[in-house]
Amino acid sequence: MTHGVAPQRVALHTRLKPGKEAEYESVHAVIPPDLDEALRGAGVRSWRIWRDGLDLFHVVEVDDYAKMRAVLRDHPANIPWQARMSELLDVEDDYSGGDSGLGLVWELP
């Protein structure tokens, strides 16, 4: 990790399947230790999620977002987590493509 360099800040939007709100929050109440270790090992410094109805808004601070996704794609701790998330999310993340998050429109400097 390169903690001397400012991290990338990536915003994401996902959407829950109707009726999965409480289950999603319950599952996120405790992140499995091996997943926590995998995320941190992949350069994640922080990951925050807000919910508005079915819409989820994430802000990830990470050393290198593309590298993080490459590391986590086939990580043994992430595979079962993503399978669980696919039960709750309207569109699952299959880690294909070049996801780069939401484009920044404006920021108060």
UniProtKB/TrEMBL annotation:
In the UniProt record, does the keyword Isomerase occur? yes
A molecular function GO annotation: L-rhamnose mutarotase activity
Q: What is its EC number?
A: 5.1.3.32
Q: What keywords would UniProt list here?
A: Isomerase
Span-the-membrane segments of this chain are none
**Which InterPro entries does the record associate with it?**
Dimeric_a/b-barrel (IPR011008), Rham/fucose_mutarotase (IPR008000)
Isomerase is among the record's keywords: yes
Q: What is this protein called?
A: L-rhamnose mutarotase
Organism in which the protein naturally occurs: Amycolatopsis roodepoortensis
Q: What is the lineage of its organism?
A: Bacteria, Bacillati, Actinomycetota, Actinomycetes, Pseudonocardiales
